[in-house]
């Protein structure tokens, strides 16, 4: 079973059981963002995590095996059109150079790792309109000469 | 004075005085991320903010006027090659659909605003290597029929 | 049922019953533009709206469920070739900077929302040739510092 | 004098005199949208209109001649990144096929002209936040066989 | 029946009956260029024209209905590689600015309509090699202020 | 003198003398389309033609030499945005396959030459609106085996 | 039968019979390059050539008919990645302007035809390593005024 | 002196002295194609060759040094629009796969080198119109396992 | 059997037998990098190598024949998004010009062959984190005049 | 002084003094690859390294300061055309998926770092032709859940 079929199977089962990503994540003992990315085929799960996900959704070993495969991460390189996803690209376009200035001022010449990395999404209630809060954390990797 | 010359003037003066974005931001009473983005020409400042920035850097009214102009926000639409900025695009490519799933599960059909929006960068010390922490907060905007 | 099959099912049924988008919209109590966009898969309907659309077209619960799904809005990013649609892109190309000048002169630094937004199409009879009148209305969103 | 220099000259003079596009348009007796597009080099003015614009801004015959030249209308074919302009492209992406369905249902096989065309921008005050109202009107052109 | 299937059905029937576009056009009472473009799905036919085409080719009402549908005109925006078609793009690349100069010198600021338009192809016998003669005729549309 | 400077010099002189392309072509004894294309740098002139053009415009031998140079014909490969030029590309997009069908039906497998080629533009007066008539003539070149 | 199926059928039969392009070409009395290009769907064969090819490969009239169809020549416009084909594009990139200089110095303003054209491939044995020799011959076509 | 200035200097001197590439090549004792490519900056010359070229054109040591530099070979990756150069790309598009079939049938799995390579251009007189003959010769390089 | 099916068959069999590329390579007597590239369809195997691979994986003659076919090497020309593969492109982007400087300083004007070429991957254990070591070796090919 | 001017200054001085990258690297005590990349503006030097480079080339403090700046690493995202650099991209295109298979088989799900990374170039003498040997070493970074 490839990752695309795996994702379709998981989503169909999730809808049928009326589960949310948050509820599955809680049962599996993982962050909702990581859990969702693994189910969408963008990260690999350990055998225990894969078993817990399948147990929760009533799915068999084929899905469990597919969840453990190392993914080839492919996405469209043109800026995506969906308004929710586009706004994040707009933020990176507007603030990309700002992030470089501010991070390298704090840390020196290097980058924030996208591999040793995690991310959370929270809801902040607010009388003027609720706010989406996204928190990213990545290890700083320094350049050095040789 | 256009925004490009304004940015060059500000950066030259900042280097000469040995100031950091963080120090300027503190004196101006604004977030370092916002302050940097305004100085890089990606946001407009109020007359008071513009005056405070120029006062801090010893710059004249031409720069102050340029800081107040409404920017035309232009950036390369191809994915940028600088490793620090690229990693943020990679995160959006890997986690874009995950963010859509998780946010719309929490909030309904809509988007996180990139206009009514703010962002912070923090340094988290860690014995295995310090971490970059980026926090974004944007108002949720809901679709409705008409 | 995905949105593409939903749209095909709706259009087949609409042709068979000889209905127009305008007639369906009137029965549903919505604007023809919004109604058409929801049936083409570019907006989500409330349960009541979805039921009314299906009732009007003699369609079942699968279509109703598909109409309520939150869409992923995808379109070609190259300028479209169909002459009717191209002319609207030409208008945006010719008048885009003009709209920025005129709107920001009236409202300050910010944008017209494409989420809190509606649009109407009218026919204006005219002896020299009838005219198409398109009216768009979107909430103004202001940038502010943090 | 080419159109680019003409636009720079007009904008410098407008800033110096503290005029708005709306005020100039009123003196010239034209719509603010058309007036702005002519000053940005995207439409040609009649000798009378060009004279009125230059009179209002205290500019000479070189600018007047440039305003009368037939423009070559060039714009970036990649979707623009400025958030205000991008939102209009997003609207066309989301609602382009809807406009085709609704207009051709009302008028038959043909297009809305972008040449025999005009557009207005209005501000609608609203306690939940003011709204931008854009109205476009174009002659319907019908396809016919030969 | 969609336009693609319609075109395949018409071409199969045309080959089987050994007809030419020119012969069909003559029976239908239309120009060969228009007739071919309608059969290739790039123009819509009136009910009478559609009936005449189907009568001539021995095809049923499904094809006739498909011929009457308003087409969505889609083509590749990259320059086509087929040598016959490429040469026409080369002509437009070499002579595009020349056409703009010569037409606007004759007519003023405006365009040649591609909607109120027709085109013919003729064979001119010539001892040095026969020549292809293509004649295009389109209504001039003038820009005017508002 | 390169072709770009040559074109600028010719256009400046033509404006100053109040000449039209048509008038220059008549004096030179050439078609207005060819004459304009040579002056825009897209064709080379013979020494006699170059001398006649310069004589007519009061220009010296540098321009004459530049007119005789073999041009490198470069144009934008993205579809041009100017509405007059775009309409010709739209015609080629809509009717390209039709031209292939109709020409190869008449002539066999081959192409219309864009080198052994000429083109004229005429104005056809018409009470419903004047029409632009463009006539292209190119030698047919046949494919053959070897 | 379309050209793609035709090519697959020919290649399957060629493999089964253990024939080479060179052997087929010799039996048909044509150049191996032209023969291969016709079998790959990039040129049309005469009825006699088509019959000879099918006779040689033991194929029926469907393939023969397909070989006689006038091809629509389509290829990828991005530079191909296969190393053998890429090297020819590299040669054109490195030597394109050189070919223009050398050919037009010898022949005047014009081009080498790609229609009235033929090409051969030979093997030149060489102790330092055998060499591929490719010879192209095309009619010179001259530009002339009108 | 960079390669661009070097080429301009050589071409100016060549025009002034009324020399052809062929004449220079003969004096230098090299092929006209190689000589032209070195003068256009696409190949490096030995000190002796560089001295001979400069001697022939009356140019100094700066040009000689520039001719000896190892070039960075850059060209536009979009297909060029100049008709002479485009025809060679069309030939590669139409016959690229044919060349792969014919060469690998003769030589095995490998490529024709574009480095250990040479090319000649000849004029073949012909009563039906003179022909351009281009001959390319490159060493065959074989793939092997490891 | 085409190369795509061949690769799928090999990978399915490899998973079922629990073999690694390294183990297969050892049995076949080839480098793991070359062996993997041949199984992924990017190199051709000799009859003996193909037989050894199939023997090892329990596969039949169809797979063996497919392994011996000369591949057409196709890959995406846009920079790939998978993080492991992207990092190698980033290295080439950052160090491409450096490689040119350093190699041509050592060897003269020429290139490193990608045909007469091999590559190895090793694991270097390291207390600060294991390291990936990639070694490439290619024959130097020199440019020479003709 | 920006990085572009810095590189031009360094290269001019290096040519004048007749130094090689290898000689400068030896004096500075760094690898030739790293040293060259820093001088080409793709890495930042420490104050000591910058001083040593400038000392060796007889350059002042402006160059030293520029060498210490954190670079914004920009390169063309289209595949480069220079044959030496292109061959490395071809290697990545042909062997990219192979590298992913072989590295992840050895190390698990993760990547080779391009930040904690170094590279060497060596010359291997060989009677059949000298070989270029490139060795890359990067830390393995593992994905883990959160």
Automatic annotation (TrEMBL), chains A, B, C, D, E, F, G, H, I, J:
SMART domains: Cyanate_lyase. The keyword Lyase applies. The keyword Glycoprotein does not apply. Residues 74-146 form the Cyanate lyase C-terminal domain. GO terms for molecular function: cyanate hydratase activity; DNA binding. Its EC number is 4.2.1.104. It catalyses: cyanate + hydrogencarbonate + 3 H(+) = NH4(+) + 2 CO2. InterPro entries: Cyanase, Cyanate_lyase_C, Cyanate_lyase_C_sf, CYNS_N, Lambda_DNA-bd_dom_sf. Keywords: Lyase. The active site is at residues 87, 90, 113. Catalyzes the reaction of cyanate with bicarbonate to produce ammonia and carbon dioxide. Belongs to the cyanase family. This is Cyanate hydratase. It comes from Marinobacterium lutimaris. The gene is cynS.
């Amino acid at each position: 079973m490839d990752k695309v079929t795996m994702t379709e199977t998981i989503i169909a089962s999730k809808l049928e059981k009326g589960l949310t990503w948050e509820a599955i994540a809680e049962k599996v003992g993982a962050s909702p963002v990581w859990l969702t990315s693994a189910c969408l085929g963008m990260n690999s799960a350990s055998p225990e995590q894969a078993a817990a996900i399948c147990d929760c959704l009533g799915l068999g070993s084929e899905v469990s095996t597919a969840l453990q495969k190392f993914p080839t991460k492919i996405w469209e390189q043109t800026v995506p059109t969906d308004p929710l996803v586009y706004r994040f690209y707009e933020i990176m376009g507007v603030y990309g150079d700002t992030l470089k200035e501010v991070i390298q001022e704090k840390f020196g010449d290097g980058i924030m790792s996208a591999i040793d990395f995690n991310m959370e999404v929270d809801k902040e209630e607010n009388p003027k309109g609720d706010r989406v809060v996204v928190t990213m954390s990545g290890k700083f990797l320094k350049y050095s000469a040789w």
